[in-house]
Amino acid sequence: MPSETSHKLHLDESTGRLTRRLWRDWLYPHRGRIAMGFALMAVVAGAAAAYPWLIKISVDRLSARDGLGVLWLTPIIVLVAVVKGGAAYGQSVITTSVAFRTITEMQKAMFAHLMRADLATFQDTASGKLVSRFTNDVNMLRDAVSKCLTGMVRDSLTVIFMVIVMFTLDWLLTLIVLALVPFAARPIYRIGRRLRKVSKKTQLELGELTATVSEAFSSIRMIKADRLEEYQRDRADRTFENVYTLIMKMVKGRSRTYPISETLGGFAVALVLAMGAWRIVTSGATLGDFTGFLTALGLAAAPIRSFGALNAALQEGLAAAQRIFDLLDTQPTIVDHPDARDLQATRGDIRLTDVHFGYDETKALHGVSLHVPAGKTVALVGPSGAGKSTVFNLIPRFYEADTGAVEIDGQRVDSVRLASLRAQIALVSQDISLFNDTIRANIAFGRPGASDEEIENAARAAAAHDFIERLPDGYQTIVGDRGTKVSGGERQRIAVARAILKNAPILLLDEATSALDAESELYVQQALRQLSEDRTTLVIAHRLSTVVDADLIYVMDGGRVVEQGTHATLLAANGLYARLCRLQLHKDAALEAPATTEPSAVRVKA
């Protein structure tokens, strides 16, 4: 995904190019309704253009003391007003609907695009900045589309009709007025270009603001525990002030169009009054002609003045459109190859051969080779940063190995379809993802469409059924945002139940019990043993008590496999694994000493 500074490379992208893409990709499918809206706008403009003629005729009839002629005009004026009002209502509903439908389709496309994006996209970009694309950017674009579809077309048609009326009433005065337009057009255009730059910066800062607020709310427990309220407030205040400063720049930029248009408008009226009086005296023009001309000029003045504001809205909307297009144009690097086929995983045998991988400039794996035999439990242990999680990420192709091969049942994972690969893998990690939905729904995500009986059987196998039944709403209990309404151990058991329901032949356990208390760990360990039966299981654990029964243990350090063997053989080798075991024993002893002399519920076997 483009960095937040990459917009500098695109500032010279023309208004025309962005507008054409917006029309081609998003507005063109609604061309029928847009055309209907434009037709109604033409009716509105035509009805508005009738007023100067009606005023002219009325004044001429009054000048001739023809009261009956004026009386006959009244129902015509009412009819014109009704037609104009009805057409204005119809075009407003249609164009607003098109604008909202377009934005809704953009939001759907952006969300679907992000769901297909690489994992690196989400790790490199704060979630708040991505959320800002769906809120701040689309709202600004929606306003621009709505205003421009309605305002620019309707106002342009109104001005055209009024100019035609003015030409028929007094061509010389019309030419004089039109000669003033270029003096306003150029500065308004330049102001609009500057507004687009400021608008892009504002949207970037709004993304920072959304990210800052979202991060603070999601970390509120740590903030309060560590007394970081003032720090977070100061951090947010700086962002609020930056947003305020940029918004005021936009307000001042928009406001500069008003004095320009008002000054030229006033100058035009004064000139018309002077010239009109001279024309009446010298050329025999009627008072009705002059009054009708002034009426047409007055009706044209408002839409002409609005062009400056509409141009500003257009430039702000195009800045938002550019950010949205940047996101949509970013293509994932991890995709199905053209000749990819479904994974035939009948056994679940996993093999990494001389795998090298790096995150940007940081090398994470250096020639890692390991084998997870089908149906066996293999553990990865080692200090933080050893590369264990990277190995996990390469198996379901969250990332692509730089060199080397990752294979399942002899098939390279980069040669099979992603959907078929990930369907064969169940993942349970310490960072459990629960949605703000029912417990039933969260378990059913393992296999959508599963029956209630299958869901309950999975919960029983995960040692979760009993605590679920004790909840007020049972399986219909809403777990809250990120599962906050249930405990850590209960969240883990729900995740295990989801994995059991998926019934995949390969199981990845990533620190699945690292954050649990002893009692919860016993429950989860029981569930994990049930889940691991007859499955190929790869386990990461810092707490070595969870891997002592593994069929094979790989010890990693610095992105390399430095030892391998069973728990007993690795202890006998007295290498890194033995040292990690001793450190774990000392840590457990230190934690248990003050509390009780009873033996620990979980103990490393020496």
Written overview of the protein:
The chain is elongated and about 120 Å long. With 606 residues, it is an alpha/beta fold. The strands form 2 sheets. A 6-stranded mixed beta sheet has the order 6-7-8-3-9-10, sandwiched between helices. The protein is built from 20 helices and 10 strands. The protein is 63% helix and 10% strand. Helix 2 packs parallel to helix 5, helix 5 packs antiparallel against helix 6 and helix 5 runs antiparallel to helix 7. Strand 7, helix 18 and strand 8 form a beta-alpha-beta unit. Among the domains are: 320 residues, ABC transporter type 1, transmembrane domain (ABC transporter transmembrane region fold), CATH 1.20.1560; 78 residues, P-loop containing nucleotide triphosphate hydrolases (Rossmann fold, 3-Layer(aba) Sandwich).
Relevant terms:
606 residues; alpha/beta; ABC transporter transmembrane region fold; Rossmann fold; six-stranded mixed sheet; four-stranded antiparallel sheet; 20 helices; 63% helix; disordered C terminus
